[in-house]
Amino acid sequence: MVTKNYYSLEEASKLIGKSKETLRRWDRQGKLTAAREPISNYRIYKKD
In sequence order, what are the beta bridge partners of 7? Predict the structure, then answer.
């Protein structure tokens, strides 16, 4: 997985104007599914 094709949680939250906690909640609820960075297991979002 190449992370340059993905936004970090912080970048995605700033881009759509929602808090990081909202994005985390949406991921848990299945509304906006995040991929996981393989080493750190951080949430990342595809740029597409």
Answer: 45
